[in-house]
Design a protein that fits this description.
The structure is a single chain. The protein is elongated, with a radius of gyration of 25 Å. Helix content is 87%, strand content 0%. The chain has a domain of 39 residues. The protein is an all-alpha fold and 62 residues long.
């Protein structure tokens, strides 16, 4: 059991050495991209919500 646990941690450390971590610039750019897309989708869905609420309100109050 102890050998399997030791082997697991050793293999995990070896795999972490193979990881290519993103640079600071790549991380910043990807973060800004995610924030931008999130804001765009929020505004888009908000506009659809307002539009549908307007249509439903006009339809029900005729």
């Amino acid at each position: 059991m102890a050998f399997r646990l030791f082997n697991y941690f050793r293999e995990s450390r070896e795999e972490l050495r193979k990881v290519v971590w993103p640079s600071r610039t790549e991380t910043r750019n990807n973060t800004l991209l995610v924030i931008g897309i999130t804001l765009f989708i929020a505004v888009f869905l908000g506009a659809i919500d307002i539009g549908l609420n307007f249509i439903i309100a006009k339809t029900l109050h005729q």
